[in-house]
Amino acid sequence: MNTIAAVAESSGSVRHLVTATLPGVINGGDLIMHLQFKDEAAWQAARGAVDAGLRHDAIKHFHGAEYVSGTEGRSGATGPNGVYRALLIRVAPDTPEDAIERFESDLLKMPGHISSIAAWRLSRVSAATGATSAGDEAPWTHVWEQEFTDLASLQTQYLDHPIHWSVVDRWFDPECTEVIVRDRICHTFGELSDEILPSDG
Fold it and tell me: Kind and range of the H or E element at 106?
């Protein structure tokens, strides 16, 4: 963790988070590193050093996504033990744009129904690293991020909420005709000591 923290600290990012993942992640690894830069030029200036820092013997495998911030918001909800969660998604490449937009719209309905989501951001990926499943190098297409008030709310209120299983799950479920997410996801989360997503959207 110290190696990754050093990479984040020296990256020049305006916001960064390095945290251990919590039990229950899916393809989430041991650590999360989140970096946010002032603009594309700042990231391009830093990426060589970041990439070099990640080429370390202790780092065997990682998933990564580059993106410009998409639709975001903050509810003002607070909790005793904040949690940052990121979901990396690969939408099938032959998916019509109107279906992708409906999928994105359904995801963005969730904060209006789930009171424990303190902040959220849905972005389209511009560049990605890491396979979505063994032997598959197809890129991630979306990052769906949230700050939750606490871990229990992510694992219960969010995952068990009717907006999740009656509206959103159809896009992920291979038994539904509307499924567009056909590969394994990366569902990762860790403790959050301070806000990482923007305070205004």
Answer: helix 97-109
- What separation in angstroms does the CA of 45 have from each of 13, 33, 42, 50, 169? 11, 18, 5, 10, 39
Q: Give the closest residue to 3 by CA, choosing from 58, 51, 84.
A: 58
- What's the chain's Rg over C-alpha atoms? 16
Assigned token pair, 63: 């998933």
- What pLDDT score was predicted for residue 33? 94
| Host H or E run for residue 42 | helix 40-54
Type of residue numbered 175: E
Residue 60 pLDDT: 75
In degrees and rounded to multiples of 5, residue 65 shows phi and psi of -145, 135
Mean pLDDT of 46-52: 89
**CA–CA gap between residue 156 and residue 144 (Å, rounded):** 18
- Which residue type is seen at 122? L
- Taking 80 as the threshold, does the pLDDT of residue 105 lie above it? yes
pTM: 0.91
Look-up: residue for tokens 């996504």?
Answer: 65
Q: How far apart are CA 53 and CA 9, in angstroms?
A: 11
Measured at the CA of 170, the angle between CA 165 and CA 173, to 5 degrees, comes to: 100
Does residue 201 register a pLDDT over 50?
no
Q: Rounded to 5, what percent of the chain is helix, strand, coil?
A: 30, 30, 40
How far is C-alpha 61 from the geometric centre of its chain's CA atoms? 17
